[in-house]
Amino acid sequence: MVERVKTGIPGFDEILHGGIPKRNVVLLSGGPGTGKSIFSMQFLWNGLQMGEPGIYVALEEHPVQVRINMKNFGWDVKQYEQEGKFAIVDAFTAGIGEAAKREKYVVKDPDSVEELVDVLRTAIKEINAQRVVVDSVSTLYLTKPSVARSVVLQLKKVLSGMGTTSILVSQVSVTERGFGGPGVEHAADGIVRLDLDEINGELVRSLVIWKMRGTSHSMKRHIFDITDKGIVVYPDKVLKTSRFG
């Protein structure tokens, strides 16, 4: 029996036939505005509701803003941070600024994957994290695409090795067919691609599970919505597009 981690995202566990296999490192890729950060925050918040501590690694946004973004959906993490069940790893500010001085886990050199891994390892140990989100992993290799695969493998070694189930958010341009960096799709255990397509003059959100090690899953492109309570996936609504990738 595969041990699974439920995302708690309505409809998503259903098309994944029960949830993400434990310890999997999932690449969540998509263009701008497709809902990647919301998806990953929802995954962490639902984990907290199930008693599973989590960590959000902020590479593209100030930790203060991350908390505000979560609160906008009704996901107030303050209490969980105080209880040591939730942590934000600040890999954005480099410790600069008044608010940054109050952060507990700070990566002083955001360009150093080694330092990020060290701080992350400490945070996972201290709060006994079971879920981790890195948003976004692309930031670590934007200027050096050739190291994309090794960065993902480095993170995977730590994340899987320490027993966490994790989501690596990966940015792709709107027209790009891949998953954000050469070879990253081979390094990850799972790939979920979020898209925003114009269909008959209307923007439609859809997602497809490209691969997921350890489980069967739907092979269809499912429509989803972003509501004021987060993402809702519709298992019975399938989008037919000419898009490939």
In terms of DSSP E residues, the strand content is: 25-35%
Number of helices in the DSSP assignment: 7
Q: Which value, in Å, is the CA radius of gyration?
A: 17 Å
Q: Can you write the helix and strand succession as a string?
A: EHEEHEHHEEHEHEHEEEE
CATH top level class name: Alpha Beta
Describe this structure in words.
The mean pLDDT is 94. This protein has 245 residues and is α/β, with parallel strands linked by helices. The chain is 27% helix and 29% strand. The protein has helices spanning 12-15, 36-49, 63-71, 78-82, 113-127, 148-161, 184-187, and strands at residues 4-5, 20-21, 25-30, 54-58, 86-90, 105-106, 131-135, 165-171, 190-199, 202-212, 222-227, 230-238. It is globular and about 50 Å long. The chain has a ten-stranded mixed beta sheet with strand order 6-5-4-7-8-3-9-10-11-12, sandwiched between helices. It has a two-stranded antiparallel ribbon with strand order 1-2. Strand 11 (222-227) and strand 12 (230-238) form a beta hairpin. The protein has one domain: P-loop containing nucleotide triphosphate hydrolases (Rossmann fold, 3-Layer(aba) Sandwich). The longest helix is centred in the middle third of the chain and has 15 residues, at 113-127.
